[in-house]
């Protein structure tokens, strides 16, 4: 064996070596102190694990070498469940909001990793996606594929109630099905279709996209079969926009789904990012007056979807440092501020519309606007955009979260 090169991966020493038979291996060296993670790594990566025991009496973790076969392409640590997933959830409490959030986010990560497995041709024992759902006793029953770029954009999971070693408390009710949608993958082959769908979001016509139609049909079929109380819908970034539109359309049909939206895009200038509170308030007031005035001027013949949607309360997970989703914080807070200064009527009219949707038609309905929501705001500190907009933040056990329930005050006409 001779050394070819050495490279660093966060938390690892990584070496590429050649063997006497002309083959090659990739070696990761990482401190791991849980033998269950070693077994998971063996099964997941198709690798051979060599553990070096610490000296007698020594505490702490011990160095472990994972030797990966050459046909497994270099994977990001974030794709590997045993290294970056919520492995601490060994006994699941389905009534615990932290557990539910972590599982929903992990299933979305499973959809991301399915696409990365496809791109890297990782199949069978080399696929990295399965642990993201198998750890929580789900099985993959359907992969949602976009014919435009032949990519996997979502997944349908079914909970295995018959599994003899289930790791949840008896008497609780896990979802029977979860439909999860990934966000944009900024890679060649995925980039163009992702950008097109982002423009669909901006112009409020995501419901015309292939991904929405495929996702909506899949959700509808499952709901018809098992009922809405047994189904979750979840998504991240662009995927949360798809999940949001599906949830809205279901509500219009009288169906309410438990919905988890991670870093959902808010199509608006990021006023919430302004530090000057007086300037921020002034801009919001001006925007509300302008939006309400335009909505009144064009006299939309609404079927009042906002009042209908107020019976549905999705879960939104927002990082205030993420410019893509942070405006949801100001959107809901400003509605309360307008009520407090006696301008509630203007606020209620403005909150149902965006200037863009007014000019683009679509019955004046801006699909990213919501009457009600449970907001979970991540107050933890991060260093990069990838971290504040990433899905991995939402299962961290040390999250500092702030919770708010916002409900729309609908006044019926007499």
TrEMBL record:
Alphabetized UniProt keyword annotations: Hydrolase
SUPFAM superfamilies, per the entry: alpha/beta-Hydrolases
Entry's Gene Ontology molecular function annotations: hydrolase activity
Position of the signal peptide: none
Database matches in InterPro entries: AB_hydrolase_fold, Fungal_lipase-type
Entry's Gene Ontology BP terms: lipid metabolic process
Domain Fungal lipase-type: 194-256
Protein name according to UniProt: Lipase class 3-related protein
Organism the protein comes from: Striga hermonthica
